[in-house]
Amino acid sequence: MTEMHKKILIISPYFPPVNAADMQRVRMSLPGLIQAGWKPAILKVDERFVEISLDPLLLKSVPEDAEVISVSAFSPKWTRKFGLGAIALRSLPFFWLKGSGWIRKNKPELIFFSTTQFPVLILARYWKWRFGSKIVFDIQDPWYNPVLPENQRPKKYWFSQWINGTLEPAAMKAADGIMAVSEPYWQELRQRYNWLNQVPCLTLPFGGFEKDIEIARELPPEKTNPDHFLIRYVGRGGSDMLPAFSLFLKAVQTGLKQEPERFKKIRIELAGTSYAPAGQGLPSLKPLADELGLGDIVSENPDRMPYFQSLQFLLYSDLLLVPGSDDPRYTASKLYPYLLTRKTMMAIFRKESSVCGILNSVTPESLFSFSPDGDRDSDFEKIKQRLSFLISKKPLPFTDPGEKMKPYLAEEMARKMNLFFREVIKEKS
User: Which of 257, 336, 354, 428 is most buried, taking the most CB atoms under 10 A from its CB?
Assistant: First the structure.
């Protein structure tokens, strides 16, 4: 550990006990950053103003010596009258007020924005002007996407395009460093804003956090039907995952025709596929199963699961399914918890995805890669053959990636973050 702590203010609107995917980077990296000599303070939205489900168990993994500061937000009950419900917009003035006061008092060496609630990134421009702060952005998803396909456009698309197209270039003027889960994310930013060619960039996927699996195993055991071959997936759905999911379903459909006694044991359970508030999400993957006549063996619960319940959900399966996006830039942050469960897995991703490189190095037998213009009959035939083999082997042995996982654990990601942060503040580690 270094002799003197370096102060870092981390902007993460969602943070435990809020169960949101975009806070996992921060949560899992805190122990490693503290060990490397950083003194972190996390600025988050008070959970009373958040519409995402809570999981109090998440608090067990937050180090006691991390300072957590809550800010208020306007109630969505009132802001929705004006068409605004996004947490970033409801909390923006409160982040500005409390964050400015904290920076003035504590003078951090670095401010790190790690969130997909992108409008808060505009505060970096003010804080750099007002306090001369060093700024690093963590790009977990594309912010401004000027070519989003029509079938993937959310409600109020015109408004989000306007605000994103206005705020992104203004915020990027403040960047001293950019971190991204996928290299194309920061490459595209450099193409849009030439000044970023002088800014250091780091590709850093999410890491696996073994402590989470330990906590999940402490939960009461789940009862499942021993006569079924239970295939489970937890994570977002969406139309961009239909190509991968359809390959899997067609493999099951073919198996039911060719080997009915073996494949009739299959049950596929999908959970947490929507980011919508509880009870408001719509199934996005099961409709395809219904079309293929597989609706009786496929269920989908769009509601978000508490984080540790979702890990338990995976632990009590026979086989884990990980469908990838048809976007080649997509990297699945959920991949590492899946690997750490040490369960047998089938991951179906586009050949260009960075996930393919990771799986090829850790568990190549789990990967099925495809291309949009590839031989789909051959693709789902390979999946069907693998499924047939696995069903015959139930119960499946645990798969232990062992030393192969070390480069992808949260500790290693925190080490790389530390080196990058010190590069940005011009200090050698």
Answer: 336
∠ CA 181-118-418, nearest 5°, is 45
């963590």: which residue's tokens? 138
Instruction: Please give the C-alpha separations between residue 61 and each of 48, 128, 267, 328, in angstroms, as whole numbers.
Output: 21, 31, 33, 32
Ordered by start, the domain boundaries in the chain are 6-207+409-424, 210-402
Locus of tokens 């519409």: 51
**Integer Cα distance of 205 and 116 in angstroms:** 15
Q: Name the pLDDT band for 341 (thresholds 50, 70, 90).
A: very high
Second CATH level (architecture) for the domain 210-402? 3-Layer(aba) Sandwich (3.40)
Q: What is d(CA 391, CA 384) in angstroms, rounded to the nearest whole number? A: 11
Task: Give SS3 for 137.
Answer: strand
Write the CA distances from 42 to 48, 86, 213, integer angstroms: 17, 20, 24
Mean pLDDT, the chain, integer: 91
pLDDT reading at 429 higher than 50: no
CATH number of 6-207+409-424: 3.40.50.2000
* Dihedral sign from CA coordinates of 114, 37, 200, 408: negative
